[in-house]
Amino acid sequence: MTTPKNRGTPIYEGKAKVLYEGPEPGTLIQHFKDDVTAGNGAKKDSIPGKGVLNNRISEFIMTRLEEVGIFTHFIKTLNMREQLVRACEIIPVEVVVRNITAGSLAQRFGVEEGMLLPRPLVEYYLKSDQLNDPLITEEHIVAFDWAYEEELAEMKALALRVNDFLSGLFLGIGIKLVDFKLEFGRIYDEEGNLYIIIADEISPDSCRLWDIESGEKLDKDVFRKDLGSLEHAYREVARRLGVLEKDNVTELKSGNDVSAKPVAKKTVKADDVGKKPVNDDV
């Protein structure tokens, strides 16, 4: 992989993104690729414009979360495909919040897709491509020191807050938030205080999104199940969120800066961040 001009050394390349060293200590550049995978990489393709759409959608959502006091790794958009983000120590646990039965949940328990759950269901998966991201319990997480009990409680509370916010956000544009995946990281301030922040991305790659009226899938299940055009589905989500300034994805403009808080100066090395696998399946 060659390094483009004006960009730091590549740290890690995952299935959907590439991380580069950032321009300042404690920062990284997150590049969104057009690649799409399913089944832990068993099925793959490249969808022109997908990286641009995910960049814009994730920028929009991360910015809105910051506005309601939920800290994320997002600092600002650099261009159509890249964001400046805070370097953080990635916690090797994926937190999935489910509102409606779908995907592996429906398969595991032999229930139909589309059943409204009585309350949001929180699940945890180990971030390990080699082990196919197994389902784990809170006891596993604490026993194997993947996260402390206090961190786990905060991750769960943040995930439920995000669920409340996103459910309302998508409801307002005619979309059901079926489920979604979050990744978290640790950063430290100048006094050494620890913060748990949301990392990675929030986009149709990491959410299940269904049109309220038609039930049309507007997420990566379109690719997983060969349901049509993935680019059309992602573009529709972006259009409804209002992040498409022009009809042509290639003409999208980069976003504005947002305030960076909290500022982390005692972060782990970027090399450590790069060792964590990135899973783009829910």
Task: Write up what this structure looks like.
The chain is of the alpha+beta class. It is built from 7 helices and 13 strands. It has helices spanning 50-67, 103-109, 138-143, 149-171, 221-224, 230-241, 270-274; strands at 10-13, 17-21, 27-32, 35-38, 43-46, 74-77, 82-86, 89-100, 116-126, 135-136, 175-188, 194-199, 207-211. Strands 8, 9, 10, 11, 12 and 13 form a 6-stranded antiparallel sheet that branches. Strand 2 (17-21) and strand 3 (27-32) form a beta hairpin.
- Give the amount of beta strand, in percent: 25-35%
Shape: globular
Low-confidence spans: 247-281
**Main sheet attributes: strand count, strand direction, barrel closure:** 6 strands, antiparallel
CATH architecture of the largest domain: 2-Layer Sandwich
Q: Helical percent range?
A: 25-40%
The sequence of SSEs as H and E is EEEEEHEEEHEEHHEEEHHH
Q: What's the rounded overall pLDDT mean?
A: 87
Q: Radius of gyration over alpha carbons?
A: 18 Å
From the 3D structure, determine the CATH topology of the largest domain: D-amino Acid Aminotransferase, Chain A, domain 1
| CATH level 1 name of the largest domain | Alpha Beta
Strand runs, count = 13
Distance between the termini: 27 Å
Number of helices: 7
Query: What's the number of domains?
Result: 2
Please state the structural category: alpha+beta
Q: What assembly state would you assign to the polypeptide chains in this entry?
A: single chain
